[in-house]
Amino acid sequence: MAIAWAAREGWNPGRADAECFYATDPDGFFCAETDGKIVGMVSVVNYDDRISFYGLFIVDPAYRAQGIGMQLYRYAMRHAGSRIVGCDGVVAMVEKYQKDGGLFLHYNNARYEGTGGGTMPAGLVPARDVDFRLLADYDAAHFPARRERFLRCWVQHPGHHGLALLDNEGKILGYGVRRPCQAGHKIGPLFARNRATAELILDGLVAGIPGEQFYLDIPVPNTGAAALVKDRSMNPVFFTARLYTTPEPVPLPLDEIFGVTTFELG
Q1: Taking the domains of the chain in order of start, what are their residue ranges?
Q2: At the topology level of CATH, where does 112-238+246-259 sit?
Q3: Could you report the per-residue pLDDT of 174-210, keeping only the tens digit for each?
Q4: Does residue 245 surpass a pLDDT of 90?
Q5: CATH number of 2-108, picked from 3.40.50.300, 3.40.630.30, 3.40.190.10, 3.40.50.150
Q6: Looking at the predicted structure, is the pLDDT value of residue 17 above 90?
Q7: Which segments of the chain are extended strands (E)?
Q8: Burial of 169 per CB tally in 10 Å (0-12, 13-18, 19+)
C-alpha cells in the first residue's frame, strides 16, 4: 500500500521495492488510522545500531493539515532510538523539516532522465556473481551503514540487473543496479572509483533497455556525476535534499557516488 501511494504521488517506485524495503527492517513501517482507515504512513528503517533512514512519508490528501503527519512522524521516529536518521526530502519542505523535524541539510540530490540503448561494454560481470562478502564490503564503503539484508534482495531479486567492474585481482572498482519501475527504470546504486568506471557500468546497464526511459539520482556535490549527465544530455526532472538528524558530516565518498540507491531508503 505504501508503494501504491508513492506511485500515486508521482515518485515512481520500483516494482519490487516493497519486498526489498520490508526485508531490511520489518518493524520499520508505520501507519496512522482514523476509524479503521489508513490515512498516513511512514517508514523508519534501522540498518544497524547507528544509522536509520526515514522515508515513504505520505498522508492521504483528504487528511492533510490536521496534524496527523507530525504525530505519525514523531511516533515512528521512536523506532530509531538514538540512531542518526537520514532522509531525502522534498526541497520545498526543507525549512519545515529543519524546524519541526530536527533535521539538518547536508546536500542536494537531482534526478535525471535518459533513454536506454547502446552496446554492452566488455569486461563487466553480473553483480550477483560477485562474492557477496566483497560486494557488501564495497557497498558499506559508500553508504553510512552495512546493509546486507537489503543488498542481498536488491542485487539478487528477479528483474533487477546488476553489473560490476573488477580489476585483475578481483577487487571491485564499481557496481550498479537497474530495476524496473512503474514507469521506465531506475539506476541505483551506481558507485564507482571515478567517472570513467561509472560511465562504463552505466553503459552496460542501459544497453539492455533500448528506447526505454531510465532515471539516475545523483548527489549534486559530485561534479563528475553532474558532468556525466550533462554530457549525455539527460534532463533534470526532480530534486531532493539529503538531511540527517545530526549537523555533523556523515562520512561518505560523494565523489564515488554517481547514483543514489533509492530516495526512500537512502
Answers
A1: 2-108, 112-238+246-259
A2: Aminopeptidase (3.40.630)
A3: 999 999 999 999 999 999 999 999 999 999 999 999 9
A4: yes
A5: 3.40.630.30
A6: yes
A7: 29-34, 37-46, 51-59, 84-90, 104-115, 124-126, 161-166, 172-180, 185-192, 213-219, 235-244, 257-259
A8: exposed
